[in-house]
Amino acid sequence: MGSTYESGNDVLSSLRYIPQSYNHADSQASALRLVLTLNPDWDGPGNNIELVRFTDGITNTLLKIINRKPEWTEEQIDHEAVLMRAYGNCTELIIDREREMKSHALLASRGLAPALLARFQNGLLYRFLRGTPANHLELAQPPIWRGVARRLGQWHAVLPIQGKPAFPATKELPIVKNPVEIESEVSEKPDTNGPLIQPRHPGPNLWTVLQKWILVLPTATEEQQARRQRMQAELERVVKEFDDGKGIGEDGLVFAHCDLLCANVIVTEESIESGPDEEVRKVHFIDYEYANPSPAAFDLANHFAEWAGYDCDYSMVPTRSVRRQFLSQYIQSYRHHREIPDSAHEEMVDRLYEDVDRFRGIPGLYWGVWALIQAQISQIDFDYASYAENRFGEYYAWRREQDGSRAQEGEEMPLRERRWAQEA
């Protein structure tokens, strides 16, 4: 497979740069300046520009900018609409913005993302995709989850994964310099009493991203220092257990979305197939901030975790039978795009089902660490600290099922684990 960045670099080299920034304190005026620089013909009589704020994201500002010209139909208005994504406060600590742009450009070159229009100092402008963001209850609707399964199978089948090394060849934890001054004491000097992980894949991937996040966890107090040490130990443990080169893709990795929550699934009115109990809705995936080479089983287990929504409603986690049906649709799509014979279908589903089950606790660790950082840097009104505890709870509940300690202590199985084990 070729480089993840080849197609992305080609698109980015010709992408317009606007030397302006979006100002969160002056949203209307700064967004208007950006879109009029992009589309100067939107200025003057006969134009009626509106800004629609999307509020589902919890790390960025996302605005839909439309020109409601009297002679245009709603479809024409949406076709010409511009999405403006402005990065959240200090999110460069946890998101590689250059990689995000290259990922978006790569996806756009394959018809899997909206066309990029321009970048500016703290964000991107790109085309609008018609459709409606799903909510977490809709993820459980068969026509929608079939569409998600088909689209994700296509992603994993057709996108290349190669990239640049994420870490230098060293076993010492580096000194991490934050790009901005942060009042809340996010760590600038990680402890150096442990080795950096050495994953099989040298470029950016699930494990190296999680390592970078752990390196910027706050360490202002002894409690925070101890927590960061625990997180490092857990990372080393899971890399040893899970970074084994097994699974579908290239050396056990695919180009994964890694953040397939409900708001990042755009549901269209179009059906790919329609029949008795077999409707498949066409969906698009948006927001590629965390996209990188990862085990397919992580991307799938992470999506299943997101059926619970932001409020962690574990009664919505898909049961065994639903997960298997989802994975069958996914493998059908994956095989189609990789031209794998039908005879391999059931064996691939069986293996992937077991692998997803094995990975079910890892999203809790991943997003728990992420939420600890967000609790320090984000200005968005969201209880990241409680969210972190919920997600870590998922990880440790899974650990206790794996080692049998929960049963040995005679405690009741947590709802998420009960739901995961439920057949129908």
From TrEMBL:
Region (Disordered): 405-424
Group of enzyme by EC: transferase
InterPro entries reported in the protein's UniProt record: Kinase-like_dom_sf (IPR011009)
EC number: 2.7.1.82
Pathway annotation: Phospholipid metabolism; phosphatidylethanolamine biosynthesis; phosphatidylethanolamine from ethanolamine: step 1/3
GO cellular component: cytoplasm
GO BP of this protein: phosphatidylethanolamine biosynthetic process
A single GO molecular function term of this UniProt record: ethanolamine kinase activity
Similarity comment: Belongs to the choline/ethanolamine kinase family.
Name the record gives this protein: ethanolamine kinase
Species annotation: Aspergillus cristatus
